[in-house]
Amino acid sequence: MIIDYLIIGHIAADITPSGFVLGGTVAYAAHTAQAFGLNVAVLTSARQDEPLLKQIHPAIRLKNIAAESTTIYENIYTAEGRVQYLRAVAAHLQPEHIPGEWRSARLVHLAPIANEVSPEMVYLFPNSRIIATPQGWMRRADATQRIHFYPWQDDDVLRQLDLMVISEEDIIHSPNLEQTYAAKTQRLVITRGDKPGTVYQHGMHRTFDVFPVKPVDLTGAGDIFTASLVCAWDRCGDFYQALQAAARLAAYSVQQHGLASVPPVDIVDKIVGC
């Protein structure tokens, strides 16, 4: 089977009051791409017997690099904001883990959540559109497992990207990175919660509208936005039209819980409109 959308990164077992819940960009983005009708493949790492892997739709091609533990995140909310802990990390994902037939995927999404994706993977796909959501490259855990911001920058890698998507919260401790990334990547999209976002392209920048709604669950909304943008751009060919569709689909997503926030096929077709 020809792969249209390849996404590389760890699934996460997120600690919640009700137990472990499936998380990670790959979970939400892969199912969103599938809703667009694409053939999707996921390269990840987790325990071989990880029950959360069963929540990945069987139509999605899955290669799991077996590890001693699945990547585990714990979020603790305090009066000063969220404190995040990385309780365990699965195996580092290397170029040799990618099946040869997957290297011709039309769309390749590098989606690290724990610095587990080798940035050198950008050089493996000369004929692909390469997308990165680099949050995992921008995180480092200290001796107590607490996550801290890391000002990741690799100019050679940035130049290989067709699109990078980040939230303004990702760079709140180093806002100058917005201009640095904009100068190096072909396209940079900055989301800003319920405020208009910014897109940088060909040395120019402009804002794009969002569609504020009363959120039920924000989990995965950024991942759904990114995958929707990539897939709508691929389907329609117009980047700005794709941005508006992605913003609408993200607004839909925050009104649902968990993987139910991934928009179904009929919603995708209605909103994307091409």
Q: What is the molecular shape?
A: globular
Mean pLDDT: 93
Percentage of residues in strands = 25-35%
CATH class: Alpha Beta
Question: What order do the strands of the largest sheet run in, or round the barrel if closed?
Answer: 5-4-1-8-9-12-13-14-15
The level of helicity is: 10-25%
Would you write up a description of this structure?
The chain is α/β, with parallel strands linked by helices and 274 residues long. The chain has one domain (5-272): UDP-N-acetylmuramoyl-L-alanine:D-glutamate ligase (3-Layer(aba) Sandwich). Helix content is 23%, strand content 30%. The chain is built from 6 helices and 15 strands. The chain has a 9-stranded mixed sheet with strand order 5-4-1-8-9-12-13-14-15, sandwiched between helices. A hairpin with a 2-residue loop joins strand 6 and strand 7 (81-88). The longest helix has 16 residues, at 221-236. The radius of gyration is 17 Å and the shape is globular. The relative contact order is 0.14.
